[in-house]
């Protein structure tokens, strides 16, 4: 383009699109009979992350938001409890407390470690 030529700039209008999504209702999850029949435990879930929120899904498929440092009692399916317990060994910031089978295992591990130190 030569120095004395000007270029016409065309500004397009913003795309209005379909505003159907503005009227969408939130999805309500309903737990299946199979899920409700699974064994569950009421546990305390704690978010140890200093800056990240976590959403924990309970037995009834309802989400519970945990702010950094927040704890909450939640009824969870035991397979979900096991998942969070197993993720702790990889540094996952969500801790599940109040599980008798894990607390007994932790106590016996501590006792065996103390016995080895003597």
Q: Helices and strands: which structural class? A: alpha+beta
Task: Tell me the Rg in angstroms.
Answer: 26 Å
Low-confidence stretches: none
- In helices, the fraction of residues equals 25-40%
**Quaternary class:** single chain
The fraction of residues assigned to DSSP E strands is 15-25%
- What composes the largest sheet? 3 strands, antiparallel
Look at the structure and give the mean pLDDT.
Answer: 79
Query: Rough shape?
Result: elongated
Number of DSSP helices?
3
Adjacency order of strands in the biggest sheet = 4-1-5
Order of helices and strands: HEEEEHEH
In short:
The protein has a domain at 29-108.
Blueprint (SSEs and pairs):
Blueprint: H1 33-37, E1 40-47, E2 54-57, E3 63-66, E4 71-77, H2 78-87, E5 94-97, H3 100-117
Antiparallel strand pairs: 1-4, 1-5, 2-3
Explain what this protein looks like in three dimensions.
With 118 residues, this protein is an alpha+beta fold. The protein has a domain of 80 residues. The chain contains three helices and five strands, in the order H-E-E-E-E-H-E-H. Strands 4-1-5 form a three-stranded antiparallel β-sheet, covered by helices on one side. Strand 2 and strand 3 form a beta hairpin.
């Amino acid at each position: 383009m030569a120095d004395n030529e000007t270029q016409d700039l065309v500004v397009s209008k913003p795309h209005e699109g379909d505003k159907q999504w503005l009227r969408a209702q939130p999805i309500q999850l309903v737990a299946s009979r199979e899920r409700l029949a699974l064994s569950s435990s009421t546990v305390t879930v704690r978010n140890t992350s200093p800056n990240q929120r976590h959403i924990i899904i309970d037995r009834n498929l309802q989400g519970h938001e945990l702010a950094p440092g927040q704890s909450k009692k939640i009824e969870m399916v035991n397979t979900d409890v096991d998942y969070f317990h197993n993720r702790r060994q990889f540094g996952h910031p969500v801790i599940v407390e109040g599980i008798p089978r894990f607390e007994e295992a932790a106590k016996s591990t501590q006792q065996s470690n103390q016995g080895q130190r003597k």
